[in-house]
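Category: protein sequence paired with discrete backbone structure
Discipline: computational structural biology
Format: plain text, a pair of labelled lines
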Amino acid sequence: MAAFALTPPAQAHLDITGSDEKFPVRRIYCIGKNYLAHIHEMNADERDPPVIFMKPTDAIVKNGGEIPYPVFTNNFHYECELVVALKSGGYNIPVSEANSHIYGYAVGLDMTRRDHQPEVMAKGMPWEVTKGFDMSAPIGPITPASACGILTSGHVTLKVNGDVRQDADISLMIWKVDEIISKISEQHRLMPGDIILTGTPAGVGAVVSGDVLDCSVDGLEPMQVRIGGKAA
């Protein structure tokens, strides 16, 4: 067995509803600009190829957790999304076979430093500064597809302090889940343990310290997180 110079980080994982087992997370893929109304509110083009970016696995925040208000931003935004967890993968997965690779689903948040996004996008720079920072990926427990079926519709809803801010249906996604899996596999070898945040509907907005975010997708375990004080 290898001897490490430093203590290795713990394996990132997510809870599974109805089970004591954990879902090990290998990579976090994210899709940008995947709901028409959100594209309009961001002044972007329709039906472009999906924007694919990643977050680090140690950005995961569990249900009930607290997210410190991050450094290097004064405009911290929520984006509530359907999350897909994969049990298998590969390169160049046909759309017709994509759903067979799904282990289950969860609700998640793509937290965003919105004040840095316009410059990053205008200059064609990497998205990490605006998307891939610490604790930027709150994700709830995974519901296995064996329990909920293959999801093609269902409301995705986000409330801030009890007020509804996002309310749409995953059937309105421009790129459907099977298409997303196929598209990502054109560029990356998908593997067991990969998860995909599939894009957010309209209604994104800023949060401040003390706000409570309740996130849900019909048929899945809901998630709640709180925005804490400024990160040290």
Remarks:
- The mean pLDDT is 95.
- The radius of gyration is 17 Å.
- The longest strand covers residues 102-109.
- The CA atoms of residues 55 and 226 lie 20 Å apart.
